[in-house]
Write a structure and sequence with these properties.
The chain starts with 8 loop residues before the first strand and ends in a 7-residue tail after the last strand. The radius of gyration is 17 Å and the shape is globular. Helix 1 packs across helix 8, helix 3 runs parallel beside helix 4 and helix 4 packs parallel to helix 6. It has one domain: Rossmann fold, CATH 3.40.50.720. The longest helix is centred in the middle third of the chain and has 28 residues. Strands 3-2-1-4-5-6-7 form a seven-stranded parallel sheet, with helices on both faces. By secondary structure, it is α/β, with parallel strands linked by helices. The protein contains eight helices and seven strands. One of its GO terms (molecular function) is oxidoreductase activity, acting on the CH-OH group of donors, NAD or NADP as acceptor. This is Short-chain dehydrogenase. Belongs to the short-chain dehydrogenases/reductases (SDR) family. Keywords: Oxidoreductase.
């Protein structure tokens, strides 16, 4: 992946830790200048210092915070070639059934995962268009492709992200911006430490290439989709899950 993103500036949201951090590190390794944004300010600043990125605070539930983040990037970077919409709230796998989900939890998941993704893309769309080869990569989930039970708020939100990706590809394509989504399977990281071992085993044994997946496993796909030559795959949703779900 070395040099694939030379000369390009990329923003990765939710990159203080976990998947977002792995994606940010991969982009830096591919030559990009990277800005990371997260609601976790202390962890975000520490990560930025460790990996050689710049940190900007953002709360995807707050439109004013998103606007401030966009203004900061415009002032300090001047150009933006790539946006990775990674930040999201994940409710627990094996959680409450559909008729026991707390309404407040449902609303917060939709606010951050769906509205937040839209608002970040909207706030940065002009900069992406002005770059001449803007790319947006949304993090979806393969749970939305097969309908994982007892995870409804999260699954519904990621299904919305998939639909949003397709519509945005149509609208942003004439402006030279490609929009795609990556749909990972369940990963082994701190965000899924709460998942029971038997549930991990269920997914990992059901994959065409059995075994666990780490955040780093989806990074090469994301890096490719951020390159200038990836426009031909715009509007697509790419499962990266060791073959748990085929499309």
């Amino acid at each position: 992946m070395r040099h694939m993103l030379d000369g390009r500036t990329v923003l990765v949201t939710g990159a203080a830790r976990g998947v977002g951090r792995a994606l940010a590190e991969a982009c830096i390794g591919a030559g990009a200048r990277v800005v990371i944004a997260d609601v976790l300010e202390e962890a975000g600043r520490a990560t930025a210092a460790e990996i050689g990125a710049r940190f900007v605070p953002v709360d995807l539930a707050d439109p004013g915070s998103i606007a401030a983040m966009a203004d900061s990037i415009a002032r300090t970077e001047g150009v933006l070639h790539g946006l990775v919409n990674n930040a999201a709230i994940a409710t627990g796998i094996g959680g409450p059934e559909y008729d026991a989900i707390d309404i407040g939890t449902w609303d917060r998941v939709m606010t951050v995962n769906v509205r937040g993704t839209w608002l970040v893309t909207r706030a940065l769309g002009k900069m992406l268009a002005e770059s001449g080869s803007g790319r947006v990569v949304n993090l979806a989930s393969d749970t939305a492709l097969w309908g994982a039970p007892r995870l409804l708020a999260y699954v519904a939100s990621k299904g919305a992200v998939i639909s949003m990706t397709r519509s945005l590809a149509r609208e942003m394509g004439p402006r030279g911006i490609g929009v795609t989504a990556v749909a990972p399977g369940i990963l082994r990281n701190e965000a899924t430490e709460y998942v029971p071992a038997e549930r991990h085993a269920l997914y990992e044994n059901g994959r065409a290439a059995p075994g666990p997946m780490m955040p780093e496993d989806i990074a090469p796909t994301v890096v490719f989709l951020l390159t200038p030559g990836a426009l031909a795959v715009t509007g697509q949703v790419l499962p990266v899950n060791n073959g748990f779900v085929f499309t």
